[in-house]
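fwd from M.: "can u put these together and see what the complex looks like"

so here's what she sent:
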Amino acid sequence: MESSSYQDNGLEILKDVDANGKERDWKGKKKRARLMAKHHAAVEKLAKKAERMYDCGNYLVFKMKDGRLKLYQAYFCKARLCPMCNWRRSLKIAFQNKKIIQTVNDREKVKWVFLTLTVRNVEGEELKPTMDQMTKAWNRFAGYAKFKKSVRGYFRAMEVTRNWDKESEWYGTYHPHFHVLLAVPTNYFSKNYIKQSEWTDMWQRAMQLDYTPIVHVAKVKPKAESTNLVEVEQELRKTILEQNAIFEVSKYPVKDTDVIRGNEVTPENIQTVKDLDKALAYKRLISYGGLLKEIHKELQLSDAEDGDLIHIDEDSDELANGALDVMAYWHVGLNNYVISRRKTND
Ligand SMILES: [Zn+2]
């Protein structure tokens, strides 16, 4: 815990550093959540959600563990568009996927393939029906004999981006798409290979489209036969980054910078909030299948979308009773988290 210039007022600013020494951006996420809440508040029927979002992460209680802060108690609003909650979801998904991928690599001989399935951009009012249609289409797609023969498991995330380019003919339209991580058998590239054009045909058929959709496939190339799991995971992450930011499959698929632009409440931002809130309500954006689903279950990983957003990376019972409590609260005036008290309860 570092003291800061606010020490004069007797106030101490929260500083939460992760295992790699990188500071966790509580303040930034809280600010974005407040801005997002303001946009919700501008829509009458989202007023309740706005209130909860304003309160999201107001109080944080940490335990000190191995010299680092570990979140112990907090209130999160769990709204689909909340930047604070989506940050927590992303961390949880990334942690879970890392565990799942490590377990799979440990036990099975598989290779990994990224698949991106898209449809043409749609207007706000078509977004929800299109996303529903895509979910149904995915089930058909994953049920095809070819898919079942060539794929052993998958992680699938639906992402929606908006076109913000005022010069574009697609300006203001939405682009829902799937990012999929596939575990394929080692003989996939020699025996059960599915060409890009075949993936495209399969997706077009499943979606019942009268045009050819854009489908990307990319092989994930971890270091040759590396047995070092950390290395494999790092390679996988590197590959994800290299492919393009769009391939960041493990991030929760709603980026708040794609929902609201700038730091002001604008009619354009409000419209986007309205459209996305409607389209994403009660919608599951991520899912696991086959081997990955089995391992998710076996490892007893909880729901990253609607579940606990406090304990995202370890079991809570690892925290010893009597550990030092550090409480922080959001200080509206300072626009930052302030430590309110510490106590030792032995
Ligand atoms: Zn929230």
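replying to her w this: Confidence is low (pLDDT under 50) at residues 1-8, 242-247.
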